Amino acid sequence: MRRLIRYAVLVAGVIFALWAWRQMESELAEREAPCNVTRRPSPTPRSQEVVMSVEDLEVGNVEVDLARSLQNGDMRFFGVYGYSVMVPGVTNYNEAYAGTFGVKVIAGTSDFLEPGRIRLQSAATRYAMAYNRLLARHIASLPRHSAPTNAPAK
Prior knowledge:
Layout: H1 2-32, E1 47-50, H2 54-59, H3 62-71, E2 77-81, E3 85-86, H4 93-97, E4 103-106, H5 118-141
Parallel strand pairs: 1-4, 2-4
Antiparallel strand pairs: 2-3
């Protein structure tokens, strides 16, 4: 009987230690994560995949594209897939924008780069960086009360 009690206490201690370790790991990961990496690898109501060709990304005019998006009421940032969804060009996305503005993730991007996808990944990152910087400047120029509380779900 004593052996059984000792075993039960040992198992409970191991379970508690594993739980505490996971809690500590997640807290450290949140503190050490780069600011432009979101913690939402799966789509959310305010994130959506957008299909864009390499040519559109390379020759696209971000000023025109942003003006079109703003005209449609779409104030979401562009993101690219990496280890998780990244929002290039905006270092404080999680703190300043994640609760209010969503993300349009460029389809086909990934942290696993196949030879044919390297061009897409770099073009998507450059495009998203330029677009997001312009959008962040636009949002900063708005009076606080006129910024939308939610990005449109398209």
